[in-house]
C-alpha cells in the first residue's frame, strides 16, 4: 500500500472514532469511546490454559527475594560448571564464527553424533544420530515436545506421585487426562531415618490405572522431589504393564549421574522390549551443572521420534548452536574419561553425596526428619512434629500445611524450601502436606550459611 493511502485510511479511522465528539469539550468521553472501541471482549486465553495459570514457584521465589534467606528451594547448583565445560563454551563463542548461525534443525551434528555414540553404548542400541536423537531446549522442552507429539484429546497419561510438577499441566495442554498413582511409604519400625527406597509402587494399584485409553506413562528416576532411584524389579513391573497395554513410556532421567551410596541407575529402555516404546530424556544442565544452557535431548526409536520432530520443526525449529557445540565437546571429553577417577560423572556424585550428608545432619539437629535420597539434587524432610506442635500457622484454611510452614520458615528462620504438596495432584495434597523439599546441590559456603540459620533455630528451641 502507498504511504498516501495509508495516511488516508488512518485519517478516516480517526474521523470515525472522533466524529461524535467534535465540538465537545469532554476529553474523558473521547477516552471512554476509544477504550470501548479497542478493548477486546472475547475470551483471550485458550481453554487449554484454564486451571494451570497459577505457578507456586513464582510465589515462593518472590517471598524468598523479599527477605534475607538462604535459598535451598530451587534446584540449581550455585557453583561453576567444570572447567572443561566452561572452556568449551568460551571456545564455541570465540572460535568458529559460523557457530553464530543456524545449525541443523534437530541438533548440531557433532552433538547428535556424540549423544548417539555415548548413549548407544549405555542403552545397548546402535543409534543413528539422524533418526534416534532430537536436541531440545532443555529437558523441559523435551517433555513438552513429547506430550504434544504423542498425547491426543482424551488420552490418559499415568503419572507417578510425587512428580515433577510440569507433568500434569503438560498433559492437560495436550488434551490428555492425568491418572495418578502414589508411591507408598513402607513403615519404618526402628525409628532410623527413612530412605527414598522405602517409597514403593503398589503393583495391584499401578495395574489398575491402565485402561484402553492409556497412551503413556511418565517415569522419573532418580525422582524429583523424593530422590528415589527405581530398582530393576520396579522397572520390570512398569515395563511389563506398558507392553501388556501397548503404552509409551516417557522416562525423565536428567539426574542419572547423581546417584549415591553405591546405587545403580537403570534406564528402562535397556529392558527387553522397551526400546521400541520408550523416550529417554536427558539434560546437559543437570549433567554438567550448567542449567542455564538449556540443552536437552530425547533418545528413542525413529517410529516415535519422527512425531516429536514434527512438533519441534513447527515450534522452536532448532536450539542455540553455541551451547550445543559446548555440550558436544564436553561429552567428547567425558567419553575419553568414562568410568575413570578423572570422569566428571564419577567426581560429581562423590562431592554431592558429601553435601547431602552435611545437610541431613544439619536438618536433624532442629528436629526435622530427612528422607535419605538415593539420587538427584533433593531430599524431602518430615515436618510432622512441627505440624502437631504448631498446627495453626497463618494461611488460608484450605491451604496445605507444608505451604504455610515454608512461608513461616522463610519469614522467621531465613530458610527457603519447597512444599512437597505441589508435587501431588489436588486430591492427594493434604495427605502429603507434612513434607518439604530441600536442594543440597549447593556450594560449601551456602551450606555454612544454612548452618548459621539452623544454629539460631536450635538456640530458639532451647528452654
Automatic annotation (TrEMBL):
It comes from the Eukaryota. The gene is KYAT1. Homodimer. Belongs to the class-I pyridoxal-phosphate-dependent aminotransferase family. Keywords: Aminotransferase, Cytoplasm, Lyase, Pyridoxal phosphate, Transferase. The lineage of its organism: Eukaryota, Metazoa, Chordata, Craniata, Vertebrata. GO terms for cellular component: cytosol; mitochondrion. Pathway: Amino-acid degradation; L-kynurenine degradation; kynurenate from L-kynurenine: step 1/2. It is found in: Cytoplasm, Cytosol. Pfam families: Aminotran_1_2. Its EC number is 2.6.1.64, 2.6.1.7, 4.4.1.13. Residues 68-450 form the Aminotransferase class I/classII large domain. Its cofactor is pyridoxal 5'-phosphate. This is Kynurenine--oxoglutarate transaminase 1. One of its GO terms (molecular function) is cysteine-S-conjugate beta-lyase activity. Its main location: cytoplasm. Coiled coil: none annotated. It catalyses: an S-substituted L-cysteine + H2O = a thiol + pyruvate + NH4(+); L-kynurenine + 2-oxoglutarate = kynurenate + L-glutamate + H2O; 3-phenylpyruvate + L-glutamine = 2-oxoglutaramate + L-phenylalanine.
Amino acid at each position: 500500500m502507498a504511504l498516501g493511502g495509508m495516511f488516508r485510511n488512518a485519517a478516516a479511522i480517526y474521523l470515525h472514532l472522533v466524529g461524535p465528539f467534535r465540538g465537545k469539550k469532554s476529553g474523558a468521553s473521547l477516552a471512554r469511546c476509544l477504550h470501548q472501541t479497542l478493548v477486546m471482549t472475547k475470551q483471550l486465553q485458550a481453554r487449554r490454559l484454564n486451571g494451570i495459570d497459577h505457578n507456586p514457584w513464582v510465589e515462593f521465589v518472590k517471598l524468598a527475594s523479599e527477605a534475607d534467606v538462604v535459598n535451598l528451594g530451587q534446584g540449581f547448583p550455585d557453583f561453576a560448571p567444570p572447567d572443561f565445560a566452561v572452556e568449551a563454551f568460551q571456545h564455541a563463542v570465540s572460535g568458529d564464527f559460523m557457530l553464530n548461525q543456524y545449525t541443523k534443525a534437530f541438533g548440531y551434528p557433532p552433538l547428535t553424533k556424540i549423544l548417539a555414540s555415548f548413549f548407544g553404548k549405555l542403552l545397548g542400541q546402535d543409534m543413528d544420530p539422524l533418526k534416534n536423537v532430537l536436541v531440545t531446549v532443555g529437558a523441559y522442552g523435551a517433555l513438552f515436545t513429547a506430550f504434544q507429539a504423542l498425547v491426543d484429546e482424551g488420552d490418559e497419561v499415568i503419572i507417578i506421585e510425587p512428580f515433577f510438577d510440569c507433568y500434569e499441566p503438560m498433559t492437560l495442554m495436550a488434551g490428555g487426562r492425568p491418572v495418578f498413582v502414589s508411591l507408598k511409604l513402607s513403615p519404618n519400625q526402628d525409628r532410623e531415618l527413612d530412605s527414598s527406597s522405602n517409597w514403593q509402587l503398589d503393583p495391584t494399584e499401578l495395574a489398575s490405572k491402565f485402561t484402553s485409553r492409556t497412551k503413556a506413562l511418565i517415569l522419573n528416576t532418580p525422582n524429583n522431589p523424593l530422590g528415589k532411584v527405581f530398582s530393576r524389579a520396579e522397572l520390570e513391573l512398569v515395563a511389563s504393564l506398558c507392553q501388556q497395554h501397548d503404552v509409551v513410556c516417557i522416562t525423565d532421567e536428567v539426574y542419572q549421574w547423581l546417584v549415591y551410596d553405591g546405587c545403580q541407575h537403570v534406564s528402562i529402555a535397556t529392558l527387553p522390549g522397551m526400546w521400541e516404546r520408550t523416550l529417554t530424556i536427558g539434560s546437559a544442565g543437570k549433567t554438567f551443572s550448567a542449567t542455564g544452557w538449556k540443552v536437552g535431548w530425547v533418545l528413542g526409536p525413529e517410529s516415535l521420534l519422527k512425531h516429536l520432530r514434527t512438533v519441534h520443526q513447527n515450534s522452536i525449529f532448532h536450539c542455540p548452536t553455541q551451547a550445543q557445540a559446548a555440550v558436544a565437546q564436553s561429552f567428547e571429553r567425558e567419553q575419553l574419561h568414562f568410568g575413570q577417577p578423572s570422569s566428571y560423572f564419577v567426581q560429581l556424585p562423590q562431592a554431592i553425596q558429601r553435601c547431602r550428608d552435611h545437610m541431613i545432619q544439619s536438618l536433624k539437629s532442629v528436629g526435622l526428619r530427612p528422607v535419605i535420597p538415593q539420587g538427584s539434587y533433593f531430599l524431602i524432610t518430615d515436618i510432622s512434629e512441627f505440624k502437631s506442635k504448631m498446627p495453626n500457622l497463618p494461611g488460608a484454611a484450605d491451604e496445605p500445611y507444608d505451604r504455610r510452614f515454608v512461608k513461616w520458615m522463610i519469614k522467621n528462620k531465613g530458610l527457603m524450601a519447597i512444599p512437597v504438596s505441589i508435587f501431588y495432584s489436588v486430591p492427594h495434597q493434604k495427605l502429603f502436606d507434612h513434607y518439604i523439599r530441600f536442594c543440597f546441590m549447593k556450594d560449601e559456603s551456602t551450606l555454612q550459611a544454612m548452618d548459621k540459620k539452623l544454629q539460631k533455630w536450635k538456640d530458639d528451641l532451647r528452654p
